[in-house]
Amino acid sequence: MAALLRSARLLKFSPSGLLQITGPKRSGPPLGRLYSGAVGGRRAGVCSRQISRVGENASSRVWPYAVGGVRNYGAATERRDEVSVAVQSKQANQFDWALAKLDHSVKRTGRVTKTLLLRIFHDICRTGYPSSNQALLLLRSCGSLLPEMPLNERTELAHHVWGKLQELRAQYDVSHYNALLKVYLQNEFEFSPTDFLAKMEAADILPNRVTYQRLITAYCQKGDIEGASTILGFMKSKDLPITEAVFSSLVTGHARTGDMESAKNILPVMQQAGIEPGPDTYVSLLMAYAERGDIDSIKQTLEAAENADCRLMDRDIMQVIFVLAKSGYHEHIPEMIECLKHERGYVPDAMNLCLSLITQGQEDTAFLILKTLPVAQFENLGDAELGNFFLRHLVNRDTSLEKISRYCKELQESSLHSTPLTFSLYCALEAKKTDTCLELMKLVKAEGLPLRPHYFWPLLVEYGKNQNTTGVLEIIKAMQGLGVSLDLATLSNHVMPLFSSAEAAQQAFKAFGITTKSGGFVCSGIRLLAGTNLAELYTLISDPSFPPLDIQVFCNSLLTGFKKFNDMDSMVKIVVLLYNDGRFTRRGVNTTDAAGFFLYNLIDSMSEKQLKAQEKNLRSFFKQLHTQNITISQNIYRGIKNLLELYNTPELLKNVNALKRSEERTSISPAVELREATDNGAMVLVLENRLAELKAEKKPVSPTLKQAINALCAEENLQRALKLKQQYEEDMTPSIYALLINLCCRLKNADEALNLKRELNRKDSSAALDGRKYVTLVRTLSLNGKVEEAVDILKEMKEKDVVMKDPNITGLFHTFCAVADTGDVDAVQRLQDTAFTLGLIKPSANLCSPAISAYLKRDDLAGALEAVQQCYKRYKHLPRMHDILVGLVEIGDTESLQKAMDFMSHERGEMIMLYDLFFAFLQAGRYREARKIMETPGMRAKPTRMQWYAEKCISTNQMETLEQMVDMTAKLFDCDRDDMYGYILQLCKKTNNWQKAEAMWTKMQEENFIPQERTLRLVADILRKNGQNVPFEVPETWYDPAKTPQLVKLAAEAAAEAAAAAPPPPPTAEKTAAAAPVRDNYDPNLFALCKKGNVEEAYALVKKADEQGLSLRPGSYDCVLRALLARGSDEDAMVVKDIARSHLPNFQLSENANNMYIITLCKKGQIEGGLETLKSMLQSDQVPSFHAITKLVQALGAQGDVERIQYVESQVKILGIATKLSSMLFPNNTALAHIKNGDVESAVELLEGLYTDPHTIKSSMSFLFRKVLQSDDDNALDKLSAMAERLANHFACYIPATDLFLQLLEMGKVEEAKFMLARCNAVAEQKTVLLSYVTEKAQMPGQLDKIKTLVSLIPDAIEKEVLYSYTMKCHDLDKDFTSAKALYKEMMEEGIAADELFLKRLAALYRNAGETPPFIEPPESFKFYANKLRESRAKAQATAEE
Amino acid sequence: MAASSKKVFELFVARIPWTAAGKEVRDYFGQFGTVKKCLLKFEKETGFHKGFGWVSFTTEEALNNALQKDPHVLEGTKLQVHKNRHPFPGRKVNKESEID
């Protein structure tokens, strides 16, 4: 912002200058000169810039909101985004997200990367049926938005996208053909315009103005003036307007034939035709000179453009630079770089220029441009990282290393990048360019930077994937050549897996001439020995010269070797060595503990079978260890003891016990340890008579008097009312006075009103009127020349604290406006100021405006300006500034205008001032001046201000003005074009101007941006309403009420036919002919029916269409299919699928449909079908949903199909979506399958393994217990129950026990639950789990008993306050008022405070019962208290944690 | 198993430069006390690590020493260091690669 204001301040704004340009003379006072563009040089040009040039640079105007604010353009970050795009898009079923990503990329950087575009394209193809707009978006991305791709590849991609989307039945209209043309032009693709037109004709699509323009450009690019003239002639014959774009193309055309004179002469020709040459024309001319390296003519042309008030932007200059580079005139480039002004959006434009230059092999020029970029300021250490994108693209384009190295050196030396070489290496590794990587590594090494083994991993991973052994060996050799030792991690993770055995690896190494003496080989050898020959291992590692090596490196192998128990001597020796020698343990770890832990791992790694089989050997082993004075710590002993107790090997335990260290013999009981864990005339007569009677009877008359006067007020009979008042003077009450005062006001009798008011004051000084009557009185007084009296009333209002409601404030505003309308400036001012000063009302722009309106009413603009300034000073509001400015512009009062501008700039900033001036010029019809303002450097879009003016134009039907505004903002930075066209279309809709709407659609193509669906729908609505054809596919909305009657009729017909179930009449020729145009009715209707849930009708409609031989859109079939599946009608769904296939042979179920199909089949027990669908999904690259997988696995589990569960599990792992599934899905169902097959042991083994493995994520197995309990399988339950106890008691793993306990409770098996608790009392400690059980139960009515049972079994399971809250919630759900009251009473007795939520619930019960609660109901909403409670609990927990 | 009941003193370290592997991270954090475990997972698909990992110390003191220092700079890059709030992810797959 600061930078922007600086640039705006460069020119001191002078409206006088602006106003004079419109006059016949071009020269004005100095300020005016400045403004016409001579001094500041590069500003302000009045021209029609509608066409996006065929430029090489990806320019931000290509997209509606291209280019955002200033941000971090770290290319590395961007690349990382892509990875996440890849992962996330795979998981996202909807690609809207991806499309938004694409849009975002263009907005941010003015480009898209190939990877991102391809992924989105792939996703669109895979997931669904592309809409016409999506197709447009993809197509338009295949041109200059891809600066990193060579031109020919971009065109190939465009053709691929075009063909594939056509296959998928995306509907193409003229906008698609125009987009393809644009891509051709951007990619300098040579094609035959005649063939292109023939292709459009074949597709029955009429070319429009934009098509012809682009074809002319195509001819001109080839230097074919004749071809261009033919089309130009055709356009003239069709009366199509010839715009600047056509002339610019002709400039290029002539230049390409080598006729620069004719090219130059196009400009005067244009002027003769009434079109001023704009930047586009000048750029075409500049580029033509650039192709010839004619720097003098370039400079002359730049000057000519400047003199013609035509402002060229950085992007324009960049195109000239690009052409100079491509044409080999590098010597002139620095001069052109000097012309760059670093405008807003410079960075992304310059980056794209760099990328394009590199792609075209112009690295040196790219490097020059790179150096013009600002070095990003990192909060991080001030480390420079300029040019990451540059280096990456160099590497990707296989630029010579000599060049890369040279650039790196320069970047580093000029402190632009701290680690350019390392970054280049990273890019090369990422791109898997082995040779480049190795060469770069040499350079890195030469720089004295470290080379590490893991630098080679990305390359090894690539070769490993392809099983390319030779490739791997070559890398290893290169590693050694670079002096990087082959470490164990590299060997074991990236090398060994490729060989059948260690020996085979050794041999291959030898054959390849790789030395096998490095550290990694040693480790690898150790592992080999540890698993095979313990004696030799001992000899090797006991040698004092053997280097330190962490036992973890070969621990697994050693365990394997030990478990063979064939060399007891060596085993003992090795343990003794580990026990005493520090070389095998990490610093800080006690060697004796390490040895003990090894023993624990040994026992842990053995299954029960193995253990029993080796019991003898183990006993002897431990005995020998004992004799060697090996001891183990208490912890280790306990661990081993738990394992051994599980396997029931008491003898062996004795041997282990012998090893336990004596000083730690004092054992701690396991129980203690567990605790630690946590709504007239005659009537008036009647009334008057009644009054007299009452008076005679000396009874109170006031109420009757009021009634009488009220009746007189209604007939507006003031005289008689006043007479009555005189008669009953003493009986007048303030409210009767109020009635009379109000009547006077209504009759505009200010004097009488005032008299009455004064009389009232005399009688009762404290009496006050209501707000409305006061305001009416103020209005009457001020409009009848009694301003001072009105002011007094205002004061009185304040004194009496009259409440000003919104209608009263509006009343007062209308009073001020009415006074202003008389032009009495002073009166309004006095009234306004009084009201504000008193604080009766708060000043707002609207409330301040009547004073200004009064001046405007008198045509006193200077006065108005003065007043508005005063107003700003006092109230910080600028009412009616726009009207003042428009007035000043219209009368040409430059002096006042200048004053206004200065004031505005000073007070509100130049940007706001410029917008105010812009709207004033627009409103006054001074478009030329308005345009200049928009071209001020540093201007950016202010959407809210533009919306304000656009809405003003729409409400006053100012089409011309609105169009002008939209046109002028075409190149405005950050301007949302879709919004702008939306405004014009809104006015078109209001005035039913379909011609204009259609023209706008064409213009959108010309501007080359993608309109949003709502914009397209607006165009379509206007066209349809006027009986016109819509030339494009309209995005459907199912909720559109306009379509409903037609829809209901169609559907009813179809349903009736279906219900009659009569054999369908043979489709007569007449019927078929009549049906053809109806097709378009089916698709949207089907969509609407499905959305509304009328699935039967939709289904009937599909069948009807089929009988008529109509093919519907694939998306429609899919929609009906899914609706049918959602109801479980899989058979009907398959009928729809077959119908679809009969019309569209390539029809496939969409991803969502397949997922629903799987679920439906599984629910019906057709698991085969479900599994087959899953397989076909995987084959067609679709991603099954978690819900579908879960249903399928559960169905397989219920069937006992272990094998297929494993198959699904492996497939899910390959897809990489396992993490989103419940971690227990597979184990639970596999176990269930085992149980189903009667193999409870395998189930137990599986689960036990899972829960004892310290490295897996464990969660609830309640699902399994529920299923087993439901099936009454006692055997399985017993075994699982034993397992749960074992896990709890020996392994401190309480999840299964707690799950079982809660499931028993849930099933009402209270006795069993009690036993469970007795056996595993630690369950009582699992408070978090118990609380979540209670929370869950308290969500549904009728569950209180379960909570009560739980609490009876474990009294301290839940905190009292919390328990009472949930109990209250249950009573509320159960509508149990009596119990709720009792509960409250109990709480009061116990002295426990009830929280607000509790009281709120109880109060509601009291109200429902028609009673009043004996306490004050908390005033806020439920949600409020729920949040409050949640926050306080979270806080309490956080405190507890600290 | 004996170790699982013990208190753990773990750091979550992010923004680790690609040039550093487990060894470099371990060596760096060794200045604050004995590093018990250093986990930096490399992606099987790419051969690069994800830029984050976990470091555990044997003592609370070492953990606090490390938490007190700011900034942590490794290979010219500022690391993000936090006390680990979640347990180490499942990691038994290949014990022997942990020392990388």
Please explain how this structure is put together.
The complex is a heterodimer of chains A (1442) and B (100). Chain A has 1442 residues and is mainly α. Chain A is 68% helix and 0% strand. Chain A is built from 80 helices and no strands. Chain A starts with a helix and ends with a helix. With 100 residues, chain B is α+β, with helices and mostly antiparallel strands. Chain B has a single domain (3-99), classed as 2-Layer Sandwich (Alpha-Beta Plaits). In chain B, strands 2-3-1-5-4 form a five-stranded antiparallel sheet. In chain B, strand 4 and strand 5 form a beta hairpin. The two termini of chain B are 23 Å apart. In chain B, 33% of the residues are buried. Chain B: Residues 9-86 form the RRM domain. Chain B: Keywords: RNA-binding. Chain B: GO terms for molecular function: RNA binding.
Protein topology:
The complex is a heterodimer of chains A (1442) and B (100).
Chain A: H1 2-9, H2 15-21, H3 30-36, H4 75-91, H5 96-109, H6 114-127, H7 132-140, H8 151-167, H9 174-186, H10 193-202, H11 209-221, H12 225-237, H13 244-256, H14 260-272, H15 279-292, H16 295-307, H17 314-326, H18 333-338, H19 346-359, H20 363-370, H21 388-396, H22 401-413, H23 420-430, H24 434-446, H25 457-465, H26 469-481, H27 488-495, H28 502-511, H29 519-532, H30 534-542, H31 551-562, H32 568-580, H33 591-604, H34 608-613, H35 615-627, H36 634-647, H37 650-659, H38 670-676, H39 681-696, H40 702-714, H41 718-727, H42 734-746, H43 750-763, H44 771-783, H45 787-799, H46 806-821, H47 825-838, H48 845-857, H49 861-875, H50 881-891, H51 894-908, H52 910-923, H53 927-934, H54 943-955, H55 959-968, H56 977-991, H57 994-1007, H58 1013-1025, H59 1044-1060, H60 1069-1075, H61 1079-1092, H62 1095-1107, H63 1114-1126, H64 1130-1143, H65 1151-1163, H66 1167-1179, H67 1186-1199, H68 1202-1215, H69 1225-1236, H70 1240-1252, H71 1262-1271, H72 1274-1291, H73 1295-1306, H74 1310-1319, H75 1327-1337, H76 1344-1353, H77 1360-1374, H78 1377-1390, H79 1396-1408, H80 1422-1441
Helix pairs in contact in A: 2-3, 4-6, 7-8, 7-9, 8-9, 9-11, 11-12, 11-13, 13-14, 13-15, 14-15, 15-16, 15-17, 17-19, 19-20, 19-21, 21-23, 23-24, 25-26, 27-29, 29-31, 30-32, 32-33, 32-35, 33-36, 35-37, 36-37, 39-40, 40-41, 40-42, 42-43, 42-44, 44-45, 44-46, 45-47, 46-47, 46-48, 47-48, 48-49, 49-50, ...
Chain B: E1 9-14, H1 22-29, E2 35-39, E3 52-57, H2 60-68, E4 72-74, E5 77-83
Antiparallel strand pairs in B: 1-3, 1-5, 2-3, 4-5
